[in-house]
């Protein structure tokens, strides 16, 4: 190729570094590398990664808005991959500072993180490598190679066995997992599972012979061991791997605390009927937080609405989309919806025509539900028990009621209170001396006139037109004509 001689000639010149010209030569080298015509690690060291310009770290934005890796990212990512694979300590020690610097700038680049794990392992810094691999595997928990790498870094044989089993649950593609099957076979033998070990070995041999490839030497050695001839092979099955997979999950998420939770209703999104979802309610220091999750990701044998469970998850209360579920387990000592506390409100409106009632429990908690979902005959002034959850949506934070049921408990006087006061009537509307609004339908129904004394029940109310909170009468118990009370009492009621 023409590029390669030109690169060789350029590297012999004395040129300005860093410079646009020097970076252009690095770009040309990456083109050669994409066709396997150049080792990036070797060239990068000759070129001098300390000569990268700030502009070389700028990512590209394609016409479709997608962000593409910068030149520096691509070079350091490929060079670190090669350094780890070739086990060259001098190359590894050279590239590591550049990997760390680039990771700080691009924390979302998981491949740099993966290469750093491998480099730390090569340097014998196993504790650091394990910690980073755990963090990495969380982001790639569905990929076999993430679990394989995590298994390679474990000290305890049981943990290695669990990680390798978890890896094979993620993939059974023998084009990629033959080496993994060999690792698992070694640990199965030590664990006393000779039948399963022989099954894995035979699977590797059959695949390699089927695609015309050489059987790996370590597999050949295993077939010559004394136990192999006597063992009855067991066909590799996910059910066997699943016996050990929970230990791998426990390893991966051991730094995350269990969160008490309850399962909510099942629902489907239009166009995704084959992927039913579930509401999930998480216990918090205030109201339970509502998130949704694909039902299959709960990985529970039985699922029912209200079921008490505990979960390990990463959750950002300020962003509904930032919820990642890692594991779920039943709470044997729990009861349905036990993370909820009762909030008492009042029914302040019933619309029979629309078949709904309106409730209010505070300035933040109010809404409507269908009369069909209300357990009883709805009447204005009824006390109701609310099961509340907070949620996040694209419109922001909110609170809604999962259920509204009648209760004998009384709501707070900050929401509902009795009153007795003189009324001023203006254009069919009533206004008490202590600031309670009496709507026209109640004024007309009770024939309330100016200066009458009225008693009843008022509820907290939001005036949309004036955008202020106030009080509105919802029940009139008694109206006393102005001629029926003394001047002293009338003056007292007017305040």
Radius of gyration: 35 Å
Number of strands: 17
Sheet with the most strands, sense and barrel status: 5 strands, antiparallel
Helix- and strand-based class?
alpha+beta
Strand content: 25-35%
Query: What topology, given as strand order, has the largest sheet?
Result: 5-4-3-6-7
Q: Indicate the percent of residues in helices.
A: 25-40%
Q: What is the CATH third-level topology name of the largest domain?
A: Serine Threonine Protein Phosphatase 5, Tetratricopeptide repeat
Q: Can you identify the CATH superfamily of the largest domain? A: Tetratricopeptide repeat domain
Kindly state the mean pLDDT as a whole number?
Answer: 90
Shape, per Cα inertia axes: elongated
CATH class of the largest domain: Mainly Alpha
| First-to-last CA distance | 99 Å
CATH-scheme architecture of the largest domain? Alpha Horseshoe
> Helical segment tally?
17
Q: Structurally, how many domains make up the residues?
A: 4
**What are the segments in which pLDDT stays under 50 over at least 5 consecutive residues?**
none
Write the layout of secondary structure elements.
Blueprint: H1 3-11, H2 20-34, H3 40-47, E1 60-61, E2 67-68, H4 71-86, H5 89-105, H6 110-122, H7 126-139, H8 144-152, H9 157-170, H10 174-190, H11 194-210, H12 217-223, H13 226-230, H14 238-242, H15 245-253, E3 259-267, E4 277-282, E5 289-294, E6 308-315, E7 323-330, E8 343-351, E9 356-360, E10 366-370, E11 383-393, E12 396-406, E13 416-426, E14 429-432, E15 436-438, H16 440-445, E16 453-463, E17 468-480, H17 487-494
Parallel strand pairs: 15-17
Antiparallel strand pairs: 1-2, 3-4, 3-6, 4-5, 6-7, 8-9, 8-11, 9-10, 11-12, 13-14, 13-16, 14-15, 16-17
């Amino acid at each position: 190729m023409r590029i390669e001689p030109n690169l060789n000639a350029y590297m012999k010149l004395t040129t300005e570094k860093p410079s646009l010209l020097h970076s252009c030569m690095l770009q040309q080298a990456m083109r050669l590398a994409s066709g396997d015509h150049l080792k990036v690690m070797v060239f990068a060291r000759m070129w001098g990664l300390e000569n990268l310009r700030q502009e070389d770290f700028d990512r590209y934005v394609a016409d479709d808005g997608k962000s593409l890796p910068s030149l520096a990212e691509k070079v350091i990512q490929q060079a670190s991959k090669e350094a780890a694979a070739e086990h060259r300590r001098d190359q590894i020690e050279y590239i590591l500072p550049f990997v760390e610097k680039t990771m700080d700038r691009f924390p979302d680049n998981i491949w740099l993180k993966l290469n750093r794990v491998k480099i730390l392992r090569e340097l014998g810094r196993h504790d650091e490598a394990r910690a980073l691999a755990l963090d990495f595997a969380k982001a790639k928990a569905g990929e076999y190679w993430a679990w394989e790498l995590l298994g390679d870094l474990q000290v305890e044989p049981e943990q290695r066995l669990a990680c390798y089993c978890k890896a094979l649950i993620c993939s059974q593609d023998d084009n990629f997992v033959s080496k993994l099957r060999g690792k698992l076979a070694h640990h199965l033998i030590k664990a006393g599972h000779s039948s399963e070990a022989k099954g894995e070995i035979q699977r590797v041999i059959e695949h390699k012979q089927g695609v015309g490839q050489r059987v790996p030497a370590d597999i050949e050695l295993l077939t010559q061991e004394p136990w192999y001839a006597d063992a009855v092979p067991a066909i590799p099955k996910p059910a066997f791997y699943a016996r050990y997979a929970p230990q791998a999950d426990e390893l991966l998420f051991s730094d995350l605390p269990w969160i008490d939770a309850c399962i909510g209703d099942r629902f489907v999104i239009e166009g995704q009927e084959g992927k039913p979802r579930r509401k999930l309610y998480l216990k918090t220091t205030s109201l339970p937080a509502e998130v949704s999750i694909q039902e299959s990701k709960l990985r529970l044998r039985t699922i029912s609405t209200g079921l008490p469970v505990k979960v390990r998850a990463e959750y950002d209360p300020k962003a509904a989309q930032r919820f990642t579920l890692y594991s779920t387990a039943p709470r044997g000592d729990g009861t349905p919806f036990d993370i909820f506390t009762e909030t008492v409100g009042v029914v302040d409106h019933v619309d029979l025509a629309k078949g709904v009632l309106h409730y209010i429990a505070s300035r933040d908690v109010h809404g409507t539900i269908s009369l069909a979902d209300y357990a009883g005959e709805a009447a204005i002034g009824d006390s109701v028990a609310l099961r509340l959850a907070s949620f996040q949506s694209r419109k922001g934070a909110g609170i809604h009621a999962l259920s509204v049921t009648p209760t004998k408990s009384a709501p707070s006087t900050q929401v509902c209170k009795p009153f007795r006061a003189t009324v001023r009537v203006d254009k069919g509307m009533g206004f008490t001396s202590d600031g309670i609004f009496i709507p026209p339908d109640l004024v007309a129904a009770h024939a309330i006139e100016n200066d009458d004394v009225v008693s009843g029940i008022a509820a907290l109310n939001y005036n949309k037109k004036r955008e202020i909170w106030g009080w509105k009468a919802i029940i009139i118990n008694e109206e006393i004509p102005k001629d029926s009370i003394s001047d002293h009492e009338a003056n007292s009621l007017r305040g």
